[in-house]
Design brief:
By secondary structure, the chain is mostly beta strands.
Length: about 170
């Protein structure tokens, strides 16, 4: 059994311009599913909203930071199978590398590194990894794939597990 390196706290902030899946109401009841290996976490559905605000924190135990995190958005249906509203994935390798940097005496709001959108990631815009209030935080805007429109905004934070000899994090 692999030992966990720590906990990745993913705050699912909001969705923007999500796809219509309920033709009668011209809306959707979206929720987000986050997957890493066998771990599956999900938000609560937001009724009749194409620009939902979840502000829900989902926590994954990370064993291997090289494995991408998968995200899927669904429309909650109460009398039939839930409709898929797109998917995305993101890497946490650069986030984990930023955690290892020496951050003593670094002012809050300092950008540690930037991740640029490209054909290999689902970023809708540049993603900044920053030092905020004594911790490393990454802000992500993900463009959904396999759907006509939609983006999801996330925020990543890290928590060490006591007794874990996983990541050696500086400045924390």
């Amino acid at each position: 059994m692999e030992k966990s390196l720590g906990l990745l706290k993913i705050t699912v902030l909001k969705g923007v311009n999500l796809a219509i899946r309920d033709s009668f109401s011209r809306s959707s009841d979206p929720y987000v599913v986050i997957k890493s290996g066998r771990q599956v976490k999900r938000t609560k559905p937001v009724k009749k909203n194409l620009n939902p605000v979840w502000n829900e924190e989902l926590t994954l135990s990370i064993n291997n930071p090289c494995i991408p995190i998968k995200l899927e958005v669904y429309d909650k249906d109460y009398f039939s199978r839930d409709d898929k509203m797109g998917d995305a994935e993101f890497d946490i390798e650069q986030f984990v590398e930023a955690l290892k940097k020496e951050m003593d005496n670094v002012p809050t709001g300092t950008t540690i590194t930037k991740v640029i959108p490209n054909r290999q990631n689902c970023l809708a815009e540049e993603s900044r990894i920053v030092w905020e209030n004594g911790q490393v935080i990454q802000h992500l805007f993900l463009r959904l794939r396999n759907v006509e429109c939609g983006e999801i905004q996330l925020q990543l934070k890290w928590t060490n597990i006591s007794g874990s000899n996983g990541l050696r994090i500086n400045g924390m």
